[in-house]
Amino acid sequence: MSWDPQQYARFAGQRLRPALDLIARIPIEHPRTVVDLGCGTGNVTKILRARWPRAGITGVDGSPQMLAEARKAEANIGWEQIDIAAWNPAAQFDLVFSNAALHWLDDHPALFARLSGKVAAGGALAVQLPRNFGAPSHAVMHELASSPPWRDALATLLRPQPVLSPEAYYGLLAPNARSLDIWETEYLQILEGENPVAEWTKGTWLAPLLAALAPGARAAFESEYRRRVAQAYPRQPDGKTLFPFRRLFIVAGF
Ligand SMILES: C[S@@+](CC[C@H](N)C(=O)[O-])C[C@H]1O[C@@H](n2cnc3c(N)ncnc32)[C@H](O)[C@@H]1O
Fold first, then answer.
1. Which of 59, 108, 189, 245 has the most crowded CB, counting CB atoms within 10 A?
2. How many angstroms separate the CA atoms of 163 and 141, rounded?
3. What is the pLDDT of residues 57-109, one digit of tens each?
4. Distance (Å, rounded) from C-alpha 139 to C-alpha 155?
5. Distance of CA 66 to the CA centre of its chain
6. What percentage of the chain exceeds 70 in pLDDT?
7. 105 CB less than 6 Å from ligand 1?
8. For residues 52 and 27, is the Cβ–Cβ distance under 8 A?
9. Ligand 1 near 141 CB (within 6 A)
10. Ligand 1 in contact with 59 (CB < 6 A)?
11. Which pLDDT belongs to residue 8?
12. Using CA of residue 11, residue 80, residue 62, residue 253, what is the dihedral sign?
């Protein structure tokens, strides 16, 4: 999928908060090496750099557009363009970190086993994943993409969401982890502007669906999606829109 850093950055504050909540729970004082998987434009990687100024930090992402933004910002972080599915370095890291990225990869039992194997003894795996796929913001997209006018073009892009239950991650990690901290938070995001939930998903899940449609079909799909989403998330009397968003956090010490 092609990422648009500007569209993604439109809700930077709301998207940053869970990363800060995750970082606050990482129990390592002085990691020597840190990798940020799915680092995007590097906003969060820079916060990792500020928290651990002496660590060697690498940001990994598959998107050249996102990495081009990341490279503008900060020296002293190594940026690598690679698909996380193929990421298999020989070295281990004191901290393997990933904020809002691993839900783009399938088969989490195999993925979490592989990533756990990249954590050095005494280190940690720290991950945040959205777990909001049943919400209207996503359900409406799925409904429309499966319906007759669009399904021929879009059905192959609909993938089962890969994020498991908190208990399932406990089951995957507990046999090898020294410590486990797993929790969920539902943020009541208070958004401003015209149809902000549709603008939010346009920065992520909606983008590949729109990109797969011819211009006429794309406009019709987006307009119907926006209409239904606006109904599902009506404006409050003060003009703002509430977008509850559930996220799962995992910090495993090894
Ligand atoms: C929602 S953004 C999050 C960016 C960053 N972690 C943050 O918190 O701001 C997801 C990022 O994951 C990257 N990504 C998704 N699937 C990937 C994959 N299979 N391999 C590498 N990067 C991937 C995307 O390119 C995108 O930059």
1. 59
2. 18
3. 999 999 999 999 999 976 799 999 999 999 999 999 999 999 999 999 999 99
4. 14
5. 13
6. 97
7. yes
8. no
9. no
10. no
11. 64
12. negative
Give the C-alpha separation, 5 to 2, whole Å.
10
Look up residue 242 and give its two tokens: 């509430």
Give the span between the Cα atoms of 231 and 127, in whole angstroms: 33
User: How many A from CA of 108 to the centre of ligand 1?
Assistant: 16
Six-digit token pair at 236? Answer: 């409050």
Q: What is the pLDDT of residues 206-225, one digit of tens each?
A: 988 999 999 999 999 999 99
What's the alpha-carbon Rg for the chain, to the nearest Å?
19
Sequence letter at residue 170: Y
40 CA: nearest ligand 1 atom: 27
Closest CA to 159 of 141, 172, 171: 141
Single-letter amino acid, residue 186? E
**Which DSSP symbol is given to 10?**
G
DSSP, collapsed to helix, strand or coil, labels residue 80 as: strand
For residue 218 the two structure tokens come to 């794309």
Which of 226, 232, 129, 119 minimizes the C-alpha distance to 176?
Answer: 119
199 pLDDT higher than 90: yes
How far does the centroid of ligand 1 lie from the alpha carbon of residue 38, in Å?
3
| DSSP run (H or E) holding 202 | helix 196-202
Residue 104 Cβ inside 6 Å of ligand 1? The answer reads: yes
Domains and CATH numbers, the chain: 5-253 (3.40.50.150)
In sequence order, which residues have a C-beta less than 8 Å from that of residue 73 and are 6 or more positions away?
A: 41, 42, 46
Does pTM top 0.85 for this prediction? yes
Residue pointed to by tokens 């569209």 = 7
